[in-house]
Design brief:
Structural class: alpha/beta
Radius of gyration: 19 Å
Number of strands: 14
Shape: globular
CATH topology of one domain: Rossmann fold
Order of helices and strands: EHEHEHEHHEHEEHEEEHEEHEEHH
CATH class of one domain: Alpha Beta
Number of helices: 11
Bound molecules: nicotinamide-adenine-dinucleotide, uridine-5'-diphosphate-4-deoxy-4-fluoro-alpha-D-galactose
């Protein structure tokens, strides 16, 4: 079966392409390379020995999508394409709504026209806002505080409406927690443009000497050591969750919404400590003010993923640290 992966040249996308190919799927990628490099896909081809069809196009371009759906018998779509920087979304809300929401509507319209009604969508734990209790279950109240999060929530709602209008749509909304780590080959990983916003690429860039020291945002949260707690999940486990969702397409009457996390929370200091122990690299840090919008604790209840998809994460925090470092040390400047 052909699977169209939008945003397939990106961090989670490349890892998912590998898992799809290894599970016997044929893969087409559409990516405008606004936050990625074509080199990642060349490496996917090399490591898997499989071909990937690549279209350097934008999901907001209907002609480009029409061409793909005309030429390939697409069975399902995994929709990663979108902008993802929370801070940037506050500064450029229209770009985020246009790209994320506009892109999704365009994609669904073309899918509908070609009668392809299987879609897996990249949502985010950000839709839960600040939870009253943890672990977070899928039926918890939703609250968003920035345009990025709002774009995810609006897309979830649009996809719900689509399913109400036409029950033939099979839709999986996957809410990711904090993906880190990298493929064990060291050939693929997170390659942020400019100074990283997220913690793991920041840590690895301190490790390699690109950055001086980690700034830890706040040490007065209600956690064991005062630093923020998150559910870090290995990107390869996350990618496997997408293959599980593709395999489950069509088995449910309703749209499904599933957390993809490990079910365990680690604080920033625990993460830094795990990184130091695993790699032997010291990460100097200082505490600074809390980052606006950050929450104290966020980790997933993962029982629904097991029940509906038969999927659970397997890799440990040490695996994530080892593989992130392996990627950074083998590719000090990312893909380029
Ligand atoms: P990424 O930026 O590495 O990948 C996104 C890809 O989409 C990039 O290759 C980019 O070039 C492409 N893209 C963006 N807009 C496009 C458009 N209009 N048309 C075609 N291609 C376009 O990000 P990622 O970390 O791999 O995230 C993938 C998805 O998962 C995103 O939708 C993101 O919002 C979501 N998500 C990510 C995280 C995370 O922490 N990484 C957490 C929750 C959800
Ligand atoms: N942190 C630091 N210093 C840094 C970066 C982060 O101390 O330089 C801390 C944060 O305060 C937080 C933790 O590390 O406690 C994780 O921060 P990240 O920026 O790596 O991740 P977030 O939890 O803020 O957000 C990420 C993605 C969102 C996604 C969310 C899902 O960036 O897009 O996970 O849970 F929605």
């Amino acid at each position: 079966m052909w699977v169209l992966v939008t945003g397939g040249a990106g961090f989670i996308g490349t890892h998912t392409c590998i898992e799809l190919l290894e599970n016997g799927y044929n893969v087409i990628v559409i990516d405008n390379l606004s936050n990625s490099s074509k080199i990642s896909l060349d490496r996917v081809r090399k490591i898997t020995g499989n071909s990937i069809e690549f279209f350097h196009d934008d999901v907001r371009d209907k002609d480009a999508l029409n061409k793909i759906f005309t030429n390939y018998d697409v069975g399902a779509v995994i929709h990663f394409a979108g902008l993802k920087a929370v801070g940037e979304s506050v500064a450029k809300p229209l770009e985020y709504y246009d790209n994320n929401i506009g892109g999704t509507i365009n994609l669904c319209q073309v899918m509908d026209a070609f009668n392809v009604k299987n879609i897996v969508f990249s949502s985010s734990a950000t839709v839960y806002g600040e939870p009253d209790v943890v672990p977070i279950k899928e039926n918890f109240p939703l609250a968003v505080t920035n345009p990025y999060g709002r774009s995810k929530l609006i897309i979830e709602e649009i996809l719900h409406d689509l399913h109400v209008s036409d029950k033939d749509w099979n839709i999986a909304l996957l809410r990711y927690f904090n993906p880190i780590g990298a493929h064990e080959s060291g050939l693929f990983g997170e390659d942020p443009m400019g100074t990283p916003n997220n913690i793991m690429p920041y840590i690895t860039q301190v490790g390699i000497g690109i950055l001086d020291k980690l700034k830890i945002f706040g040490n007065d949260y209600d956690t064991i050591d005062g630093t923020g707690m998150r559910d870090y999940i290995h990107v390869v486990d996350l990618a496997k969750g997408h293959v599980a969702a593709i395999k489950a397409m069509g088995s449910f009457d309703d749209i499904i919404t599933v957390n993809l996390g490990t079910g365990s929370g680690y604080t920033v200091l625990e993460l830094v400590n795990a990184f130091e122990v695993t790699t032997g690299i010291k990460i100097p840090y200082e505490f600074v003010e809390r980052r606006p919008g950050d929450i104290a604790r966020c980790y997933a209840d993962v029982s629904l993923a097991k029940e509906l998809l038969g999927w659970a994460s397997e890799k440990t925090l040490n695996d994530m640290c080892r593989d992130s470092w392996n990627w950074q040390s083998k590719n000090p400047n990312g893909y380029e």
